[in-house]
Write a structure and sequence with these properties.
The complex is a heterodimer of chains A (about 160) and B (about 280).
Chain A: H1 2-26, H2 40-51, H3 58-72, H4 78-97, H5 102-126, H6 138-161
Helix pairs in contact in A: 1-2, 2-4, 2-6, 3-4, 4-5, 5-6
Chain B: H1 2-5, H2 10-19, H3 21-41, H4 44-82, E1 86-98, E2 108-111, E3 124-126, E4 131-138, E5 143-147, E6 154-159, E7 165-170, E8 177-182, E9 193-196, E10 208-216, E11 224-230, E12 239-248, H5 250-255
Antiparallel strand pairs in B: 1-2, 1-12, 2-5, 3-4, 3-12, 4-5, 6-7, 6-9, 7-8, 8-11, 9-10, 10-11
Chain lengths: ~160, ~280
C-alpha cells in the first residue's frame, strides 16, 4: 500500500515538473531572449530518466514530445522523436554520467541536448522548412549551463518528497 | 512526417490541444496581466490624446465611406453587366492572439477562437492593414494561424498597379516574401502594392498583402529576384480579423444598390458582427 502511494506521489511530482517545463517553454519571451531559451522539457526528462531509469524511459519521452509538439504547433513527432532518443540514451548512460559532479555532468548532458536538436533539425529539413541560423544551437549551451543548478534543485525536490 | 502530409492525426492533435489549453492559458497570463495593468495606469491626458486621434481617424474613414457605397453599387452593376459573379460581403470575427511562444522556427500564431466559434481550416486571417495568413489547425477553443511569411505558405497575388498576377511565397523571415518565377522584363517596380488575386479560392480578392522592396536582376538566374515586405504587422498585432466570404449572387446584388454598406461593423468584444450582404 505504502509503496503504491509513494509511486503515485512520485508520478505526480514528475508530471508537475514536466508541466512547469512546458510552461517555461511556452512563456512568451522578449525577442532578444527567445534564442537563449533552453530545452526545458529535455532537461527535465534527462534528469528523471537518469535518476529513475527503471520508471522513466522512452515512452515518457515520446509522450512528453507529443505534448510539446501539440503545444508548440510543430509537426507531430518532431520533438517526440528527439526526446525518445534522448530518454533512451539517458537511461543507457545514467551509470556513467551520474557519478560525476553536476558541472561535469553538464558536458554529457550538452551532448544529449545536441542530439535532440539535431534530430529536430533533421525533421525541419525533411518537412521543407528553411535551415535555421546558427542561433539554433545556442539553447544547447544554455541548457548545459543550467543543468548543474537544475540538477541540485531537482535532487532536493526528490529528497523532499522522498522517492 | 505523416502529420505534415495527411489529415489522419488532426483529431488526435485537436483533442490533445483542448486538454492542453490550460497550459497555453497560463503561459499567456503574464502578458495579459501586464497589458491590464498598463490599461489601469494610463493617464487621463494619454487617453484624451488617443481619443482625439481615433476620432480624427474615424472622421477621415467615414468621409471615404460616403463615396464607397456609391462606388460599390456601381461596381456591382458593371460586374453584373459582365456576367461575373461577385463576392464582396464578408462576415468578420475579431479574435485575440494568445501570446505564447510557438515553435520559433515556423511562422505561426495562436488565436483564442476555435471551431466552437465556427472557424475552419483554410480560413483567411487579416489584421487592420492587410492579409496575415490562414487557419491551418483548429481545436475547440484555439486555432493555429500560419502566417504568409512561413516557408510553407504561398498565396496568389497581383500587382495593384497593372494587374500582373504572381505568387508570393514565404521565406521563413517575418518581413520577407519572395515572388517566384517573374520574368526579367516583367513590369514590377519598387513600392508596388500587391493585393490578393482571389485565385486559389482561399483568400478573397482585393486585400492588400505586401509592398515590393527589392527588384534585382541576377545574371545567373532565369527569373528576376523580387522581394516584398508584408504590410500586415505580423509580429505586432494583438487582434486579428477572421473572414467568412459570403457569396452574393450577381443578379440579386445588382438590385439592392448597396444599402447597408455602413453596417459592416466589428464588435469590439469579439462577437460575430454580421454584415449580411444586403440580403436581410
Amino acid at each position: 500500500m505504502t509503496n503504491e502511494t509513494l509511486l503515485r506521489g512520485g508520478t505526480l511530482v514528475i508530471l508537475g515538473t514536466l508541466i512547469v517545463a512546458l510552461l517555461l517553454t511556452t512563456l512568451p519571451m522578449p525577442h532578444w531572449a527567445a534564442d537563449y531559451q533552453p530545452q526545458w522539457v529535455a532537461l527535465v526528462l534527462v534528469f528523471w530518466a537518469m535518476s529513475l531509469p527503471q520508471r522513466i524511459g522512452v515512452f515518457w519521452g515520446f509522450g512528453a514530445g507529443i505534448v510539446l509538439d501539440v503545444i508548440s504547433g510543430s509537426v507531430l513527432g518532431q520533438h517526440a522523436l528527439g526526446l525518445s532518443v534522448v530518454c533512451y540514451l539517458a537511461v543507457e548512460l545514467h551509470q556513467r554520467i551520474l557519478p560525476f559532479p553536476p558541472w561535469q555532468q553538464a558536458l554529457s548532458v550538452w551532448l544529449l541536448l545536441l542530439v535532440e536538436r539535431l534530430l529536430s533539425l533533421w525533421i525541419l529539413g525533411a518537412t521543407g522548412q528553411p535551415t535555421p541560423s546558427l542561433g539554433y544551437w545556442v539553447p544547447t549551451f544554455v541548457g548545459a549551463l543550467v543543468w548543474p543548478w537544475m540538477f541540485v534543485l531537482m535532487r532536493g525536490l526528490r529528497e523532499r518528497f522522498g522517492f | 512526417m505523416a502529420d505534415s502530409r495527411y489529415r489522419h492525426l488532426d483529431f488526435l492533435r485537436s483533442s490533445l490541444s483542448v486538454v492542453l489549453y490550460p497550459i497555453h492559458y497560463v503561459a499567456a497570463l503574464p502578458s495579459r496581466l501586464s497589458r491590464a495593468v498598463d490599461g489601469r495606469l494610463a493617464t487621463e491626458t494619454d487617453l484624451r490624446e488617443r481619443n482625439s486621434l481615433l476620432e480624427r481617424d474615424n472622421l477621415v474613414l467615414r468621409g471615404r465611406m460616403q463615396t464607397f457605397a456609391a462606388l460599390e453599387a456601381e461596381n456591382r452593376r458593371l460586374r453584373d453587366l459582365l456576367g461575373s459573379s461577385f463576392k464582396l460581403r464578408d462576415r468578420v470575427l475579431v479574435a485575440k492572439l494568445l501570446e505564447v511562444a510557438l515553435d520559433p522556427y515556423r511562422q505561426q500564431v495562436l488565436v483564442d477562437k476555435g471551431s466552437s466559434s465556427g472557424l475552419f481550416v483554410g480560413q483567411p486571417v487579416l489584421d487592420a492593414d492587410a492579409v496575415m495568413g490562414q487557419v491551418v489547425r483548429t481545436s475547440l477553443l484555439t486555432a493555429t494561424v500560419l502566417l504568409i511569411t512561413d516557408a510553407a505558405h504561398s498565396l496568389p497575388v497581383q500587382i495593384n498597379r497593372n494587374g500582373l498576377r504572381t505568387v508570393a511565397t514565404g521565406s521563413g523571415l517575418i518581413n520577407r516574401l519572395t515572388l517566384l518565377h517573374l520574368p526579367k522584363n516583367a513590369d514590377v517596380r519598387l513600392g508596388d502594392l500587391l493585393v490578393t488575386s482571389g485565385l486559389g479560392g482561399v483568400f478573397p480578392p482585393g486585400y492588400p498583402v505586401a509592398r515590393i522592396t527589392e527588384v534585382r536582376d541576377d545574371p545567373g538566374s532565369p527569373f528576376a529576384t523580387v522581394i516584398a515586405e508584408p504590410t500586415a504587422r505580423l509580429d505586432r498585432s494583438h487582434e486579428v480579423l477572421l473572414v467568412w466570404t459570403l457569396d452574393a449572387p450577381a443578379t440579386a446584388a445588382a438590385n439592392d444598390s448597396g444599402d447597408g454598406a455602413d453596417d459592416r461593423a466589428t464588435a469590439p468584444s469579439g462577437r460575430v458582427a454580421e454584415a449580411a450582404g444586403g440580403r436581410r
